[in-house]
Amino acid sequence: MGLREHAGVDHGVISRAELFAAGLSRAEIDWAYRRGSLVRDQRGLYAVAGAPVTELRCARAAVQSVGLAAQAVASHDTAAHLHGIDTVRRQQFEHVTIPRATRRPQRGPLWLHAHDLSDDDVTFVDGIPTTTVARTLLDLLLRADRLTAIWACESALRAALLSPTELGLSIERGARRRGIKRARRRYQLIDVLSESPLETGVRLIFADFQLPPPRLQIPILGADGSVQYRIDLGYEERKVGVECDGRAVHEQPEALFGDRERQNAVLNSGWRLLRFTWSDYRTRPRYIAATTAALIGIRL
């Protein structure tokens, strides 16, 4: 089997041993790598140049580089992506969990986690051993930054990959794990009505500054009583709404015109409307909280 034929095997991952078995010498493999015909995914693992870089390919290479004999399992962000769960942050490393007693090999770019997983913690995604959805979310609640963890849970719950009860039980099964109190606090902040990571981030800022929990996806009714628009989040009794302007959507020309029409309709309905961006979330959390608090009549 040639290099091109190997590109469709094991999600495009080819081991050095497989290349030897295909008749290539060490010098030929190294030459193919130097000239760009082969791309190194992990130590001792390659893909043919031009093969799609997919979540499956990256996860397969990560797990295989550690060794299936070592009971390596894709976990954390890597497992979340395999399950189709959004984690907000850009992944710099593939995450793999191995048993505590296993010697940790030096592999990169990898983030190795040592934990003894039970059979109930592991499933297979396209043949790749992977932590289950429930275990993956628990790991993120314990180890990831707060926005990543909470948004991942909201993403999974909204997609019906598991139920709130199943997630709650997973957290209780991890009762003795380090950081479980923080994971429980994060669990209480999950709201499946949140439709974007920025909406979730703004809610978390409100919670940090002890603002009242806002209502999400507030409907704005037209003259005929039908729902014309929805406000991302806000306070109905004060008629104060908050719109979260994510860059990917709201910078498109069509979206900008739609936003203006929508905002005008909301203002004509008697609402006061605030707009916050990712830049506000990252650099000016107090500004978000103080601006909102002033409109709803609360002093920080």
Describe this structure in words.
The chain is an alpha+beta fold and 300 residues long. The chain has 14 helices and 12 strands. Mean pLDDT is 85; it is low at 3-9. It is elongated and about 75 Å long. The N and C termini lie far apart (68 Å). Strands 9-10-11-12 form a 4-stranded mixed sheet, with helices on both faces. The chain folds into 3 domains: 3-48, no CATH class; 64-188, no CATH class; 197-296, Endonuclease, Chain A (3-Layer(aba) Sandwich). The protein has helices at 3-6, 16-21, 26-34, 55-66, 76-82, 133-143, 146-158, 164-173, 180-188, 197-208, 247-250, 253-268, 278-283, 285-296, and strands at 14-15, 38-42, 45-48, 73-74, 94-98, 110-114, 122-125, 128-131, 215-221, 227-235, 240-245, 272-277.
Helix fraction bin: 40-55%
What's the pLDDT, averaged over the residues? 85
Order of helices and strands: HEHHEEHEHEEEEHHHHHEEEHHEHH
What is the quaternary state of this protein? single chain
Number of domains as seen in the coordinates: 3
- The low-pLDDT segments are 3-9
CA-based gyration radius: 24 Å
Outline the biggest β-sheet: 4 strands, mixed
Q: Which class best fits the helix and strand makeup?
A: alpha+beta
Total number of strands:
12
Strand order of the largest sheet: 9-10-11-12
Share of residues in strands: 15-25%
Shape: elongated
- The first-to-last residue Cα distance is 68 Å
Annotation field: number of helices = 14
Q: How is the topology of this model organized?
A:
Elements: H1 3-6, E1 14-15, H2 16-21, H3 26-34, E2 38-42, E3 45-48, H4 55-66, E4 73-74, H5 76-82, E5 94-98, E6 110-114, E7 122-125, E8 128-131, H6 133-143, H7 146-158, H8 164-173, H9 180-188, H10 197-208, E9 215-221, E10 227-235, E11 240-245, H11 247-250, H12 253-268, E12 272-277, H13 278-283, H14 285-296
Parallel strand pairs: 5-6, 11-12
Antiparallel strand pairs: 1-3, 2-3, 4-5, 7-8, 9-10, 10-11
Helix pairs in contact: 4-5, 5-6, 6-7, 6-8, 7-10
